[in-house]
Design a protein that fits this description.
extended, two-stranded antiparallel sheet, Ribosomal_mS41, 45% helix, mitochondrion, SAM_Ribosomal_mS41, mainly alpha, Small ribosomal subunit protein mS41
Length: 129
């Protein structure tokens, strides 16, 4: 009796949960030229955060840049940090979806100016002793 009520209630969910693990859905789109970035160097310059200097061996052609995008182990072999790799791969995924770099690029977070102990220090001034 109790199980029947659970099944009936679950059938009234607003939308079914869909999971797809087909290789076509999980396949990455290849990087290629666009009007805003005709060359791989231009894309790396637009991405910023010194990506053009960090990925100079792969900036010669779109095929070499696609090697980095499709086999991400090469980024680790170059000695890039985790945040750098994540940002570059995030930017490549946005670009491969057809977005222009000028729409999704964001500057890095500035360093914190005030280090403190919460409400004891506000705007660099000690409030409580």
């Amino acid at each position: 009796m109790f199980l029947a009520s659970l099944r009936a209630s679950s059938s009234r969910l607003p939308s079914p949960r869909l999971f797809s693990t087909s290789s076509r859905v999980m396949e990455k789109a290849r990087l290629g030229p666009s009007t805003e970035t005709p060359t791989p160097e231009a894309l790396l310059i637009k991405i910023g955060r010194n990506a053009d200097k960090k990925l100079t061996p792969f900036a010669e052609s779109w095929e070499k840049l696609n090697e980095v995008w499709l086999r991400t182990q090469k980024l680790q072999d170059l000695g890039l940090g985790i945040k750098e790799r994540r940002y570059i791969l995030w930017a490549f995924s946005k670009y491969s979806q057809g977005n222009n770099p000028s729409t999704f690029i964001r500057p890095p977070k500035p360093p914190k100016k005030v280090r403190g102990w919460g409400p004891k220090i506000q705007n660099g001034v000690r409030v409580r002793e």
